[in-house]
Amino acid sequence: MVNRMDLSIFKGFTRLFFQTKVFLPMNILVLNCGSSSIKFQLFKMPDEVLLTQGKAEKNESGNTRFLMKVSGKNRKFQFTGFSYQQNLNRILQELVRPSNNCLHALNELDVVGHRLIHSGDKNETKNVTVITPEVIAYMESCTLLAPLHYPANLEGIRTIGKLLPEVIQAGVFDTAFHTTLPPRAFLYGIPLHWYLNHGIRRHGFHGTSHKYAVQQTCKIAGLPLENSKIVSCHLGNGASLAAVKNGQSVDTSMGLTPVEGLLMGTRCGDIDAGVLVYLHENFNLSVSEIQKLVNNEGGLLGLSGISSDFRAVEEAARKKHKAAQTALDVYCYRVKKYIGAYAAAMGGIDALVFTGGVGENSVYARAEICSGLEFLGIRISQNLNAENNGSETVLNQPGAKVKIVIVPANEELMIAREVAGWIKNKRPGIFQ
Question: Of residues 6, 47, 121, 174, which has the active-site annotation?
């Protein structure tokens, strides 16, 4: 008996294969489904024409704030409640609304690409994974590895499967870029059989963002990707660093789960594993309480007692709030420490790139992180740093050994590139 989803995938491939030259451009809808938001971008590939972008996000009252940018204009809506069915259906409606000038009909969509969080112990090395029932079942088994992300990933996939049953769905795992880590970087110091039999190792995350940031940095700074040593700083509510040597990730700060590494909005980052045992044995904290502690109650929120939002903590620090300043000190210190470690691991550093909401938009964070790293050749221009936020910019002092670059995060474009490249390889000549 043929599975309905397998049949839909077959029909989708058949449609791609029999396209005439008139339909060579690909319309790829990229979705990033989070626990309280859905970000979307629609691209016409391979020319990377952005037809529209936007997001549906849950507001403070639990309702939906819908934002969309099309033809240079911003549109805003409000809906009661927040559900993936409601919001994805509205996104699709807007894509074919004549006044938006995106698509004439939904059958013009060729592929829906998803940002997926964790490939687990399959050690996924492919850039693109076709969503099949087997992939969905495997993702379900990995939910505990990324409890904040995977339920949303799965809900988005299932909902699109209902709304667009004959459109191919493909995913790019956040962990894929980091499969080039050598054993010395990904192994933990526990008995080897836990890795060999259960895949307990450092996987890393934000891979799509790091890959895009590094590629753009090389273009902006005039560096050869295949002969470069770059530290990529994805700093947002979730945050991680990657050491990228000659275009390949050789180390990264997140681990088996997204908790390890830097201080984040609500995640604690690096912590002595013995602390968690101590909390369990002496304060009777359950596994779920510890999970909540390290994922939802730590980070900037836990240390400042104010907010998980870097902007709010920064504002409080300017008003002499001591705990807020301490939280910022810990945040920037950890980033700085990892930069030094990764420069040592790669035997040098050619460029330092800032991406993500904090990396792109906090003058304070960039200045504080770079301060004291002059011995590595990292010399930030205070004027350029103060004058530039949120756009691709070089920030280093003239003649400085290390390029310092802002690259606005664009995981959606990177996913569209990966998916388009995968289609091209599946059907040579499709973009020729």
Answer: 174
